[in-house]
Amino acid sequence: MKLIATNNEKGSMGTGARGLASAASPLGRNRLPLARTRRPARTRALANALANALPAPSWTRAPAPFLWESLARGASCMRGMSVRAAAAQAEVAEAKPMTKAAHGFTLVQEEFITEYGSQVGLYRHDKTGAQVMSVVNSDENKTFGVTFRTPVSNSRGVPHILEHSVLCGSRKYPIKEPFVELIKGSLNTFLNAFTYPDRTCYPVASANLSDFYNLIDVYLDATLHPNCIRDPQIFAQEGWHLELEDPSQPLTYKGVVFNEMKGVYSSPDSVNGRVTQNVLFPDTSYAKDSGGDPADIPDLTFDEFKAFYESYYHPSNARFWFYGDDPADERLRLLSVYLDEFDAREVDSTVYLQKLWNQPKKVVEKYSVGESDESMDEEPKSFVSLNWLLTEEPLDLETELGLGFLNYLMLGTSASPLRKALTDSGLGESLIGGGVEDELCQPIFSIGLKGVKQEDAGKVEDLVMETLERLEKEGFAESAIEAAINTIEFSLRENNTGRFPRGLSLMLRAMSGWIYDRDPFRPMKWQDDLAAFKARLESGEDVFSPLIRKFLIDNNHRVTVELHPDESLGKQLEDAEKARLERERQAIGEDGISGVIEATRVLKEKQETPDAPEALSCVPSLSVADIPKMVTPVPTTVSTSASGVTTLSHEIFTNDVVYLDVAFDLKTVPQELIHLVPLFCRSLTQMGTDKESFVELTERIGRKTGGISVSPFVSAVKGSDDPIGYIMVRGKTMADKSQDMLDIVRDVLLSAKLDDKDRFRQMVLETRSSLEAGIIGSGHSFAGTRLDAQFGVAGWIGEEMGGISYLERIRALVGRVESDWEGVMRDLETIRSAVLQQKGAMVNLTGDEGALTAADKSLNDFWASIAPTSVDRVAWDLTLPRQNTALAVPTQVNYVAKAGNLYDAGYELSGSSYVVNKHLGVSWLWDRVRVSGGAYGGFCDFDVHSGVFSYMSYRDPNLLATCDVYDGTVDFLRKLELNDEELQKSIVGTIGDIDSYQLPDSKGRTAFMRHLLGIDEETRQRRRDEVLGTTLKDFHEFAEVLDAVRSSGQVVAVTSPEKAELANKERPGFFQDVKRIV
Fold first, then answer.
1. Which residue in 181, 238, 439, 651 is the catalytic one?
2. What count of other Cβ atoms lies within 10 Å of the Cβ of residue 1066?
3. Contact call for residues 2 and 900 (beta carbons, < 8 A)
4. Distance between CA 927 and CA 986 in Å, rounded?
5. 79 touches 486 (CB < 8 A)
6. Vertex 264, ends 259 and 265: CA angle to 5°?
7. Where are the beta strands (DSSP E) in 30-104?
8. Contact in structure between 669 and 840 (CB atoms under 8 Å)
9. Is 283 left (phi over 0), alpha (psi -120 to 50) or beta?
């Protein structure tokens, strides 16, 4: 899969980002690597495009010098009541009629969608019946997508493997990886593909019209004329194949999707989600895994793979989407060039409905854990969730809205009653289940806990049902309903999708009905239904109790899923795979083994042989001449008060929304307390104040703002051994509520209660649970963070606030909360006293003129409440010892990282390093780690602030072999030859990262980050000039720089205990430290 809601932000350095990462990566340590996605993060028809006000991640690092994204984004949820329209929407000057017929298309339906300022037409292709949604507005970030309905009858992963494979060459672009060539030389703002349980999507986006047309052409040719149905080697590479290089070695399975899914099946959270979907829909295609079960993937044949494509990848089964300011008529002409080749065909891709049960059910499954170890503080525990299928028939939009509001009321914040009942119960460590989810043909509701003692499983079920009964009888407080409506409406109207293109967000929303032959306009039109729903509430009607009764309490299509830990399961799966391979070996005999060895050799030779330059020229790309030579500044006014507070203001049109960042110097906090800072930040908004309970404070935030979050930010600074650190308070609201927002910020800073032991304990347990789950699913992030801690103080701080060291601190804190709560409270108050001062504080405001004026006026009162005291800064000076480390967890795959500090080796930063870094990620590392190595992703990341250059792999079947690839980078660069066209592609792609598309709030925050990191406009222009002037000589010279990583870099790998042991047997002493983590 090519992971989209995580790897959507091309060029984004996002949460945990450090500098400039390779384009084959998510461009940030906490993003998943570029590898076509199994399914995006679960979407909600009315929520998937919404911003949210959930707390930021536990800590954040510096962005790239040119880029920044909001760090206050979390999981989607809905918002809404007493707020006017918020941020700038896509608009059209006037509603112009769509063309009734053109290029073989006929207009079927046309509407002006007020909610998105868009003229929308639904067309049908006369010859094939293909459907096209054409959305016209003034949004320059144009989006195209094609979606095929692809239900499955088994768990062999055929739609997932196809989704990878169709982008590996086509009729018009007969090279190995047109997708990668697009990454190299495109200005795209989104380029990916993803597989749902019942459909496969191929979306692209770009703000450059020529680039947009190039992307469309490559994707149309890929999906309608792919080489993969004629070339079994593509199927072998992306899906699965037997691999053997020497008859004395064991036979193995390799393949990108095969290894990706081994990683998915190693994650208990993923296993829980898969089991839940399968058991709720036992009689439909959802009972199977469209991504592929590693035990079943080797059953897939090339003939079945080819037949699946021929059955479903046809225009008669396709939905095409266009969005933005590109000429509407040209959209139809571009499509007609491809579609006119086809004739209409009956395609049976029906997604059948699951009939509702009459009696609840219970399912007990297992997940793999490591063997018991005295070093672990607690035994693994269970997952327990209650799951409902809500209806057989489609819901009307008002009912969907009602369920969305109900979901938010019950679960949307930490103070929501069902969520609070579960977290306060002490029965588990962390919430699981996302409540209402309606991305599939029928909506579901799921809720539960993980970290549950097996004997308490029944208590979780009882608690959920008792809480639902209570809520049905008692209802919700008016203040809670008002807060929910304000929050939902604010987000719907703001339509702030971050770096995720608005057009793609709207496509996914429309597709939630369209893919099932329902009205595609309906999910986009919520305004009238929202008004009607609000009117019902204002009339005093009890809207929510009937919904709870009908869809949950009296709904017997409910299954309780218990997932229990099993120490032997991992070995059972491994032994089963080995036994199957041995049977395969015996069945094919010596001649068959010789054939496998030859097939392995031929495949690797093809994978490692680059396409000829003349062949690569078939993929269209922009030239450096098309790229703006000058940087684009963000309008910024800077002022400093007498007390030392610096304020940055950015006058940008936001339609009366004001975006606020308040930063307090973190360098006043002693380093022995740094590990408590993330929990301190969370406590400020989740424990209540002297005058308000936790619930009351949460509702006030919901009524008055679009969200407030608090999180730490730490970064190295180029040219300094001393990092910067801030506690960031972020919020957004309408201009006339600026005072309300700042009053809330003042109250949480000055009077937040830090003495709720039970609440704090639960936050500690949730943090532990999240970290333990994260290392199995995102091991590359933890490996990279561990390496950063060996090379600099900022990296050590990051490790203390988000890495393995943080996990160890949190595990110890569980016991300390019980034995020394008074001491914990003193430490929290010490942090508050240290950071709450005007000296060194900074404010960042983004909004239009009226919003800035209103906010600036309110700031005077805010700062008057903060004492102008001065606390001395402290020294942060620790790092971890430099050594190769294996972080051992129960996993079937590896996450392998190697890093070194280029500045320590004497390197002087040049913008050309950005181009080299990007090229490595889409050439050498992509080819050797992913394509021939079989990993889900391989990439590199250069933190230009600290000088740390890192290699990383993701869901990797190899360990030492991947380290050898990293070390081979130097020789690859030394011998590299690039013609002018290839060099220009790399430069254009790098500029695409630098100039990534941003909404107004992100522009203001980007300028703020540059200010904090000391990056002025002169520096930006110099780096851009260096990027544009990059030559082949720069690549060769960078090889000598990277030799420092090869010779003196360190390795950290997240792997299994067995694989760590094997590595040390093969290369004695390779890992100086093997740490059992989970």
1. 238
2. 10
3. no
4. 16
5. yes
6. 95
7. 101-102
8. no
9. alpha
List Cβ<8 Å contacts ≥24 apart for 924-929. Answer: 924/965, 924/968, 924/969, 924/972, 925/22, 925/24, 925/951, 925/965, 925/969, 926/24, 926/177, 926/180, 927/607, 927/608, 927/610, 928/608, 928/965, 928/968, 929/953, 929/956, 929/962, 929/965
SS (H, E, C) 194-205: EECCCEEEEEEE
Active site residue 482: no
CA 83 vs. chain centroid, Å, equals 29
- Our answer to whether residue 238 is catalytic in this structure is yes
Q: Give this prediction's pTM.
A: 0.90
HSE-up of 248 (CA within 13 Å, CB side)? 0
Give the Cα-Cα-Cα angle 68, 72, 74 (nearest 5 degrees).
115
Which residue carries 């499955």 as its tokens? 152
Beta pairing partners, 712? 727
Distance CA 512, CA 1012 (A): 42
Single out the residue of 689, 659, 706, 525 nearest to residue 68, CA to CA.
659
* 527: amino acid identity, one letter: Q
Give CA–CA dist 950/947, Å, rounded: 10
**386 in Cβ contact with 434 (< 8 Å):** no
Confidence at 375, pLDDT banded by 50, 70, 90: low
Which residues, at least 6 apart from 337, have a Cβ–Cβ distance to it below 8 Å? none
> Over the stretch 469-491, which tens digit does the pLDDT of each residue have?
999 999 999 999 999 999 999 99
* Cβ(187)–Cβ(992) below 8 Å: yes
Contact 808, 696 (CB under 8 A): no
Residue 754 in tokens: 């830090």
Angle at 984 between CA 979 and CA 986, to 5 degrees: 100
Question: What CA–CA distance (Å, rounded) separates 486 from 79?
Answer: 6
Among candidates 180, 285, 159, 286, which has minimal Cα distance to 223?
159
Q: Where are the beta strands (DSSP E) in 88-130?
A: 101-102, 105-113, 118-125
Question: What backbone torsions phi and psi does residue 537 show, to the nearest 5 degrees?
Answer: -65, -45
Task: Provide the 3-class DSSP secondary structure of residue 294.
Answer: coil
Longest dimension (CA), the chain: 84
Residue 707: CA count within 13 A, CB half-sphere: 30
Beta bridge partners of 431: 449
With b for 16 or more beta-carbon neighbours within 10 A and e for fewer, the 837-867 pattern comes to bbebbbbbbbbbeebbbbbbebbeebbeebe
- Tell me the three state secondary structure of residue 785: helix
Q: Which is catalytic among the residues 163, 400, 772, 799?
A: 163
- Whose structure tokens read 């010892």? 881
Q: pLDDT digit string (tens) for 68-94?
A: 222 222 222 222 222 233 334 444 446
Q: Indicate the residue type of 535.
A: A
Q: Provide the residue type at 423 as one letter.
A: T
For 547-587, what is each residue's pLDDT tens digit?
999 999 999 999 999 999 999 999 999 999 999 999 999 99
Residue with tokens 């009321």, as numbered in its chain: 409
Q: For residue 862, what is the enclosing H or E element?
A: helix 849-864
Question: Which H or E run contains 1008?
Answer: helix 1000-1012
**What is residue 1041's three-state secondary structure?**
helix
Range from 403-412, 864-873, 1061-1070 carrying the lowest mean pLDDT? 864-873
Q: What is the pLDDT of residues 346-364, one digit of tens each?
A: 999 999 999 999 999 999 9
d(CA 664, CA 599): 60
SS3 content of the chain, % helix, strand, coil (to 5): 45, 20, 35
Collapse the DSSP code of 658 into the 3-class scheme (helix H, G, I; strand E, B; otherwise coil) and give the result. Answer: strand
Q: What is the pLDDT of residues 9-35, one digit of tens each?
A: 222 222 222 333 332 222 233 333 333
The structure tokens listed for 317 are 């089964």
Given the DSSP bridges, would you call strands 318-324 and 937-942 parallel, antiparallel or unpaired?
unpaired
Query: How crowded is residue 676: how many other Cβ atoms within 10 Å of its Cβ?
Result: 21
